[in-house]
Amino acid sequence: MLLQHTTWPEVGDYLESSKGIVVPIGSTEQHGPTGLIGTDALAAEVIAKRVGEDAKALVAPTISYGMAQHHMAFTGTVTLQPSTLILVVRDVVTSLVRHGFERFFFINGHGGNIAPVNTAFSQIQVELAAARSSDGPGDETGRNAPPADVRCVMKNWWMGEKTTKLREELYGDKEGSHATPSEVAVTWHAFPDQQRDLPLDPIEPVRRSFHGPEDYRKLFPDGRMGADPSLATPEHGRRLVEVATAELASAYEEFLADD
Ligand code: NI
User: Fold this and answer.
1) 27 by DSSP, 3-state: which?
2) 20 to 30 Å CA-CA from 181: which of 85, 91, 162, 192?
């Protein structure tokens, strides 16, 4: 069930049976000469929607912009500052907390989001605790105090045990770490008319970590990091979506059941 396709009374009904919500988050950034600019957001969204169906969870709109400063030397990339992304995540979560949601399961498609999103989760806990201490015990009714047990987690769709194993089986050391054949395969499965078939230069080995956008482009001239996305097929993408969905749906259910 998609939050965007529900009405406000229906959200209220949902909250009677569950306090959980799935939040896809990605990025809008270059993915080499053959990968779509939307790869990270599209992959997270495709998988999150499937998780929502399997786990009967509400799925929030995808946060499609992420922290992509290191890709800014490539046309089409859009980045949020880390501090902006922290506030976007905080505002989305605290809005939904106000309506009664307490379990936030982020499905992430982009490595650059990991640090700011986890920082946002800490910020949210700081602010909720401060609001409880000022409004909660001191408030005559306590009704305005935020709930005591809001939890946020983030799962990178490609990092589950079985998903990692399938990526290794399919691509070995050609998987690389950006514009990977696995993420490209997921988008080609979901959007078969968006496949690109272009010759690619040999893979540049990943020699060291990158810094700013110009340094990234110097190290990785066509945008890929150690990856050979020409190995991607829509059928691989279908298998990856299946495996990732199963892992994430059970992780979501465990997250809701945790004491
Ligand atoms: Ni990506």
Assistant:
1) coil
2) 85
Burial 73-82 (b: 16+ CB within 10 A, else e): bbeebebbeb
Q: 3-136+144-169+244-257 belongs to which homologous superfamily?
A: Creatininase (3.40.50.10310)
* Alpha carbons 181 and 202: distance in angstroms, whole number: 14
pLDDT in tens, 210-253: 999 999 999 999 999 999 999 999 999 999 999 999 999 999 99
23 SS3 class? strand
In the block, tokens 């080609």 appear at: 188
Interval 44-60: pLDDT, tens: 999 999 999 999 999 99
Distance between Cα 157 and ligand 1 center (Å): 11
**Token pair in block for residue 217:** 């482009």
| 3-state secondary structure at position 63 | strand
User: What stretches of 90-158 adopt beta strand conformation (E)?
Assistant: 103-108, 151-156
Measured CA to CA, the distance from residue 40 to residue 74 in angstroms comes to 16
Domain boundaries, the chain: 3-136+144-169+244-257
Q: How many other CB atoms sit within 10 Å of the CB of residue 62?
A: 22
Tokens 């305005």 sit on residue: 144
Q: Hunting for tokens 């709109």 — which residue is that?
A: 61
What is the per-residue pLDDT for 133? 86
**What tokens were used for 129?**
């605790």
Distance 179 CA to ligand 1 centre (A): 6
Rounded average pLDDT over 195-203: 93
pTM over 0.90: yes
Kindly give the distance from the C-alpha atom of residue 137 to the centroid of ligand 1, in angstroms, as a whole number.
45
Distance 110 CA to ligand 1 centre (A): 5
Instruction: Report yes or no: 18 and 256 within 8 Å, Cβ to Cβ.
Output: yes
